[in-house]
Design goal:
- The complex is a heterodimer of chains A (282) and B (285).
- Chain A is α/β, with parallel strands linked by helices and 282 residues long.
- Chain A contains 11 helices and 11 strands.
- In chain A, the strands form 2 sheets. In chain A, strands 3-6-7-2-8-1-9-10-11 form a 9-stranded mixed β-sheet, sandwiched between helices.
- The longest helix of chain B is centred in the middle third of the chain and has 18 residues.
- Chain B is of the alpha/beta class and 285 residues long.
- Chain B starts with a strand and ends with a helix.
- Chain B is elongated, with a radius of gyration of 22 Å.
- The relative contact order of chain B is 0.20.
- The chains are: A alpha/beta (282), B alpha/beta (285).
- At the A-B interface, helix 4, helix 6, helix 7 and helix 9 of A face helix 4, helix 6, helix 7 and helix 9 of B.
Chain lengths: 282, 285
């Protein structure tokens, strides 16, 4: 079973929900934790895994054999990402713009281009002291393309128990790459106008992808009740409300896990898990 | 004309609330919301939309069943796993055109795909350019570039001396498009382990692009020890922490009223700290 924790808005508590859910579920069934927020991965700060396997993530970018290239410029024509230009018969590749589709290599009439692996990030994996497996990816600084790193993280999962994925914020390609093939999605929001606006965008996204989902309201008690009213009117289940409490915020700030410090939250996350199981099996 | 970018690495640290306060405080500026996949600035500035532009950044492949003989060459060639059972999954298709070129039956065409919209608006604090990326769309970086170009054009035409840009979270493609060529980056962080971790990565990105950088610690009193750690870290790498803003529930009350804190409670400690911050940013610019 793959459960992904997402949100339109950043900073609503995705990592809090994903890590604490993992800590509760691991008592019942084998857990694999995947942090797919490869631009700003944070889950390791709370779960403290020992990351002993480090693997590079590469993207195949074109490399030019100048002896074979006659400067015809067909590669430039084929490239939909403006990653190739031809000046005075010389092919110039802008590697940051390349998506690694392989079109230029495949269609060069002279066979002058070959794929060359370019490192864009790493995948690090290992185990948490609580006994479950942990994987995260790190996009290299200055590299724009997160989805290939996300896909590499997801490939590491055996999916023989429960996979919990911590997704990046937003609704665009990195989020889609994280969410794809999930069995259930938890959308974390906060009861503010920003939270509501971005929740609506995220709901549009998961509906488009056809993934069943429920909402978690974090910092409930701050703000207003418009998120709840919206969920009611759309028939979206609210699976958990985490009250705003300065003690929880302080626990998070120093890298603590709320289910380990506050029994009332252990119980809430336990109920959340039962509810997810019920909904996925239905 | 100068461009100021407000970013954070980590989401939810208070970028938009602070940017909206700057929008209220600054004279003679254009506002650009470059968080195109979860734009929120319009909630505080209630824009009156004057122009709506369609944004076509890419194409998607389409397989025409009547010509397709199911040879499988397209599936083999697609590096994005976007073809299943001879149907294109639009969500995964990146529009590279490899399947279109490789198909021996010419059964695949490339169709324009509407990736989103961008808007030019008038607000109580002056002109604003903002956008909405389509649901589950790509090309957020290109849309950011489009928003910035439009803001620059308005600034030139109306003789505005400053563009204030609300940036997206993360360090990837839309952030890179936001940071390229700006005059200064203000990083808004928070005193949490995650805030500090993400701050380190976003500072490295700003250094990579060689942009003048300053840091503001929002909600600093939530964990004063972490705040001190962040200050020490910034000192060690020569980046100035120019402001510490306290946690204040009134920022949320203001947001619910559709106002920035400097408009909602002008005399509060938070408002005066943000005014102070704005002074310092102006001096640095």
């Amino acid at each position: 079973m793959i459960i992904t924790v997402a949100s339109g808005k950043g900073g609503t508590g995705k990592t809090t929900v994903a890590t604490n859910l993992a800590l509760v579920v691991k008592d019942k069934i084998s857990v694999e934790f995947l942090d797919c927020d490869v631009e700003e991965p944070n889950a390791h700060l709370f779960l403290n895994p020992e990351l002993n396997v480090i693997e590079p993530v590469t993207l195949p970018v074109p490399s030019v054999n100048e002896e074979l290239c006659d400067g015809c410029g067909y590669c430039k024509e084929v490239c939909e990402f403006s990653a190739i230009t031809v000046m005075a018969g010389n092919v110039l590749v802008f590697e940051e713009l390349c998506h690694g589709c392989g079109g230029c290599v495949k269609f060069c009439p002279k066979g002058a281009l070959t794929d060359k692996p370019k490192q864009i990030g790493v995948v690090e994996s290992g185990r948490c002291s609580e006994g479950f497996s942990f994987v995260h990816g790190k996009l290299n600084i200055g590299s724009p393309l997160a989805p290939p790193v996300i896909k590499a993280v997801k490939k590491k999962a055996k999916n023989d128990g429960v996979v919990i994925i911590d997704a990046p914020p937003g609704t665009s390609c990195p989020v889609i790459a994280s969410l794809s093939r999930s069995d259930y999605c938890l959308l974390v929001t906060e009861p503010t106008p920003f939270g509501l606006n971005d929740l609506k965008l995220a709901v549009g996204m998961v509906r488009e992808m056809g993934i069943p989902f429920g909402v978690i309201i974090n910092r409930s008690g701050l703000g207003d009740d418009k998120v709840e009213k919206y969920c009611d009117s759309e028939g979206i289940p609210i699976l958990l409300k985490i009250p705003f409490d300065r003690r929880y915020a302080e626990c998070y700030a120093r890298g603590g896990c709320v289910v380990e410090e506050f029994p009332e939250l252990y119980k809430k996350f336990n109920d959340l898990w039962k509810e997810i199981e019920r909904r996925v099996e239905k | 004309m100068k461009e100021l970018l407000i970013i954070s690495g980590k989401g939810g640290t208070g970028k938009t609330s602070i940017t909206a306060a700057f929008a209220a405080l600054a004279d003679n500026k254009v506002i650009a919301d470059c968080d195109v996949d979860a734009a929120d600035m319009h909630l505080l500035l209630q824009p009156d939309v004057k122009e709506t532009h369609q944004f076509y950044a890419s194409k998607v492949a389409e397989i025409h069943e009547d010509k397709c003989v199911r040879c499988g060459k397209c599936i083999e060639a697609c590096r994005f796993d976007a073809i299943e059972d001879f149907k294109i999954n639009h969500i995964y298709c990146e529009g590279c055109g490899v399947c279109y070129r490789i198909c021996p039956q010419n059964a695949i065409t490339m169709e324009d795909s509407l990736s989103g919209h961008w808007f030019v608006s008038e607000t109580k604090h002056g002109p604003m350019v903002h956008a909405k990326l389509g649901i589950a769309e790509e090309n957020s970086g290109k849309l950011v570039t489009e928003v910035r170009k439009a803001a620059q054009k308005i600034a030139q035409e109306q003789n505005k001396s400053l563009i204030i840009i609300d940036g997206p979270p993360g360090i990837g493609c839309p952030v890179i498009s936001s940071i390229t060529g700006v005059d200064m980056v203000l990083i808004v962080t928070e005193p949490t382990v995650a805030g500090k971790h993400d701050l380190e990565r976003i500072i490295k990105l700003a250094n990579h692009f060689d942009v003048k950088t300053a840091v503001c610690i929002n909600k600093y009193d939530l964990d004063e020890r972490k705040t001190l750690e962040i200050e020490n870290y910034c000192k060690s790498i020569g980046v100035d922490v120019i402001s510490k803003i306290p946690f204040d529930r009134k920022v949320i009350d203001a947001l619910i009223k559709g106002l920035s804190i400097v408009e909602y409670e002008e005399t509060s400690q938070t408002a005066s700290e943000i005014k102070n911050l704005w002074q310092k940013v102006q001096n640095m610019l």
